[in-house]
Amino acid sequence: MAKNTAPVGNMLIAQSGGPTMVINQSLVGAVLEAKKHRQIKKIYGSLHGIAGILGENFIDLRRESAANLEAVAQTPSSALGSVRKKPTKDDCRAIFGVLRRYGVRYFFYIGGNDTAETTHIINEEARAHGYPLQCFHIPKTIDNDLRENDHTPGFGSGARFVAAAFMGDNLDNRALPGVKINIIMGRHAGFLTAAAALARVHPDDGPHLIYLPERPFDENKFAADVEKVYRRLGRCVVAVSEGICDKKGTAIAAKLSKEVDSHGNVQLSGSGALGDLLAGIIKSKTNISRVRADTFGYLQRSFPGIASPVDAAEAREVGRLAVRHAVAGRTPSGSVTINRKPGPKYAPLYGLVELRQVSRETRHMPDKFINKDANNVTPAFVAYAAPLVGPLPKIGRFKGVPVPRPS
Amino acid sequence: MAKNTAPVGNMLIAQSGGPTMVINQSLVGAVLEAKKHRQIKKIYGSLHGIAGILGENFIDLRRESAANLEAVAQTPSSALGSVRKKPTKDDCRAIFGVLRRYGVRYFFYIGGNDTAETTHIINEEARAHGYPLQCFHIPKTIDNDLRENDHTPGFGSGARFVAAAFMGDNLDNRALPGVKINIIMGRHAGFLTAAAALARVHPDDGPHLIYLPERPFDENKFAADVEKVYRRLGRCVVAVSEGICDKKGTAIAAKLSKEVDSHGNVQLSGSGALGDLLAGIIKSKTNISRVRADTFGYLQRSFPGIASPVDAAEAREVGRLAVRHAVAGRTPSGSVTINRKPGPKYAPLYGLVELRQVSRETRHMPDKFINKDANNVTPAFVAYAAPLVGPLPKIGRFKGVPVPRPS
């Protein structure tokens, strides 16, 4: 058995990137696990990710009651605050100065691929500076696009919101027919947009069309697709990813925005511009008069009270496992992963990979999840996503026996 | 005791205007009550309101099982389909021709003020044509703007969605600070937008500013208000009604749209244009860099699984009462109302008014519900709305004991 090289010292945990409905489950899972291990002394939370390290804005997580930790775990969004910041070499030097003064030997960073990249940079620089640090990434992203993972905490709950929203919106569109376009989050990967498919109960239910960033978006084909559905059903509900790209791979929403963060990401969310652009395409290229667009926006990642139970439990577990790996001392760094046990019944299979394996680049929807016409998902995707999303609202519909016309 | 002049005949029920989360409760309440009365023979549902009468598209609601009626009652949106159509005199003549052939003596129309106007027109024309018809309006509108009512079925559930959404969005904004503007439905009345105030748990919680159609909107004051909050808290969450108007009373969103329905209403929903316009104002008039806008859109009236229990029960009851009034025969027409019993504990007080009293014109937020600065609501509004909305998600927050800096 390998020697346990895990140090004795203080722990720092932080959150980064876009919040999710269950990111606090991971935080609380890590804190509760840390309390069990004698190697971990103080448990500090950094406010707003690495910005809180640079600014020395820490809170003492051992001072939070068990009841309060549970209440926070059930609450959406990042309870420690978040940030979108890629550290420079100078930032790293400053970070190690702070960590040294606070006696931090354990660092946990909860987030997506950009957060994994930051964790990787901090880990590499720590080695280069000879600063001994157990450095672990805890996965989270509603985009579901971390490599080495079957799926990512946050996705199941975001997908549950999207599916429920489409259930209701499909009924609204059935009551007042027309074309309804809904824009869903997902910068590079279409998983969250694809989850709209889970809303379908009856054969005529929307979304009738689904457009993903994995396939080039052509506005003429889009208009023809919509018109075809509209001719058949007298209405059409469409799910579109905010990340849809033209043939050259440029995001269409990016052409409508100028804002870029330090990871190089252009602002796609927080605007209705893409939806309005697509509604305008349908209005100009078809004769359909009632065309509406909604952008689900930040509600997809922050709406309280509807987290997927499976997602919440898995988010808790990856936080817990990151601490266990850190204190086990077999490896000084890594990222916890979730894959799927083989077999007919869904069960998660947790693992650990190197930070570089999940940082920066993202994964995409596999081809088997996208139909040939590039305007829908396959049954394989629905089978993949359903257990992650959990139970959805029951939708009633009249049998609707027509009344014969009086003779 | 007055003689019961209620006829024996068939009943027709229909839904009109924007769907709500509980409009099917009213429909099912009416159907279940109708089944108890020997005066009512067939129970027909007209598909898409009066369009279904003109097209003779009826379904037989006696053929729906009790279990299916309950499932539909729990389901958002208008199960019979909806329409936005004001009948002409020719339409009315055609309608009576159809009603006569189908032996219809009871007509129930579920909707808002435009629907009440249509019911009123049909009732007046029926008297003029000598067509004997019990003609009742059943209230519904998320806008909460029917005259003669304390509140309206659909509002409590829409308000519950809005309040929960702001709870989550406030946390999202706290995690990644900036200015966040959310556009809420409400053409003439600010009730639904005002319900965002119910999201506040802690003193620094958003929405920090609320703009309603009842007060003229000035973009310079708006920018100054936002900047003031941002300077104090480092962030700002804003609730804005889609119906906000300039000093002349012209809806700002109406300037961005060209679509008008037969009741003269310009399209306000189904576009992100107003939110993007307001975000642009903040970006151009302040130095704040992170400004985002979401438009809650149709989810406010259609999201499944989160209806307010009080709202659902009251929606059921107004449907039931409309049928009871109709078969009681003391009056051939009317609109069921909901007011509030005096006293400290909330209890509804149902009544009946003439159709003309609730048709066409809408009511607005009373002055006592709006602050002097015209950018927020008063505690009186919160006390008014809270019992209608029901329980909201519990929000956890860290006590957040700061870690002292090492000396």
Describe this structure in words.
- Two copies of one chain form a homodimer.
- By secondary structure, chain A is an alpha/beta fold.
- In chain A, α6 (155-175) crosses α13.
- In chain A, β7 (209-211), α8 (219-233) and β8 (236-241) form a beta-alpha-beta unit.
- Chain A contains 13 helices and eleven strands.
- The first copy, chain A, is 36% helix and 16% strand.
- The longest helix of chain A has 21 residues, at 155-175.
- In chain A, the strands form two sheets. A seven-stranded mixed β-sheet of chain A has the order 3-2-1-4-5-10-11, with helices on both faces. A four-stranded parallel β-sheet of chain A has the order 7-8-6-9, sandwiched between helices.
- The first copy, chain A, has two domains: 9-153 and 306-358, Rossmann fold (3-Layer(aba) Sandwich); 159-303 and 365-389, Phosphofructokinase domain (Rossmann fold), CATH 3.40.50.460.
- At the A-B interface, β2, β3, α3, α6 and α9 of A face β2, β3, α3, α6 and α9 of B.
Question: Keywords, please?
Answer:
four-stranded parallel beta sheet, 16% strand, seven-stranded mixed beta sheet, 407 residues, homodimer, alpha/beta
Short description:
2 copies of one chain form a homodimer. The first copy, chain A, is of the alpha/beta class and 407 residues long. Chain A contains 13 helices and 11 strands.
